[in-house]
Amino acid sequence: MPTAAPNPTATADALATGRAPAESVESHDEVTTRDRVLRLIVELGPISAAELARRLTLTSAAVRRHLITLETEGQVEARDDVPVTKRGRGRPARKYVAAASAHSHLGTAYAQAALAALAQIKQALGPEGITAFAQARSEEMRARYAPAIEAAGDDFAARAQTLARLLAEDGYAATARPMPGGIAVQVCQGHCPVLDVAEAYNELCEAETRAFSDLLGVHVQRLATLATGGHVCTTHIPLKIPTRKDS
Predict the structure, then answer these.
(1) What separation, in Å, do the N-terminal and C-terminal C-alpha atoms of the chain show?
(2) Whether residue 158 sits in one domain with residue 75
């Protein structure tokens, strides 16, 4: 029986990496798992390696291996979160957030075409044209989100959870995070599909914030945005103050 000819590509890869050709499948799996790690950091960061391992059902060693690669590639950044204790003791917990390059990895929505179109709008209509565009975009969001948020009832926490779910479905990697004492919820958007555009035209962020306020029926506050250098867009939603309807 003739012996099968060796695969030249697999042999070259083996010589270059020092691994058997069969490990090429494992390499693909490694990349897929690393992408899952990155996406979870984008969605939930700051997040520790232990929490990543728990959520992804991986060993701590496997997660740390992926984190080292992601740090080397400049896609995540580590931050020391000092524990708050009476004596201030304890080793700082290292948590990870997405770096700016991670958003390019996840993709943006036709950024270059949108930037070119908005530049033409600004040239033809001035700043008012950009404001009108941002307003129209936020009104479209209101129209799509309003039925689901109204169906959540009058509970602001439930409405905030619904808003985060809708944003996540639109690619914003959003979560709703209750604050201690139940006084507020923060909706965090770990990714922005139109980040390049928002960096150039902050009118989009401002209009989006107004849309959140209108949808939830309460005054909200933007604490940070990806467009201004934050690692996440954070919107603070108070749960225990008078609403617009009451004022």
Answers:
(1) 88
(2) no
Cα dist. 19→10, 16, 22, 124, 216 in Å? 10, 8, 8, 59, 55
At position 244, the amino acid (one-letter code) is R
Q: How many domains does the chain have?
A: 2
Q: Are 63 and 56 contacting, i.e. CB atoms less than 8 angstroms apart? A: yes
Identify whether residues 35 and 154 lie together within a single domain. Answer: no
The helix-helix angle for 111-125 and 127-151 (nearest 10°) equals 130
Give the model confidence (pLDDT) of 198-241 as tens digits.
888 899 999 999 999 999 999 999 999 988 988 889 999 998 75
**Cα–Cα distance for residue pair 46/196, rounded to 1 Å:** 22
- What is the Rg, in whole angstroms, of the alpha carbon atoms belonging to the chain? 23
Q: What is the CATH number of the domain that holds 162?
A: 3.30.1380
Residue 113: pLDDT band by 50, 70, 90 thresholds? Answer: low
232 Ramachandran zone, left/alpha/beta (phi>0; psi -120 to 50): beta
Considering the domain architecture, whether residues 41 and 122 belong to the same structural domain is answered as no
Q: Which domain holds residue 133?
A: 111-238
- Residues in contact with 3: Cβ distance below 8 Å, sequence separation at least 6, in sequence order: none
- 65-95 pLDDT, tens digit per residue, is 888 888 888 888 887 754 444 445 556 678 8
Q: Is 136 exposed, middle or buried (0-12, 13-18, 19+ CB in 10 A)?
A: exposed
CA distance 44 to 111: 24
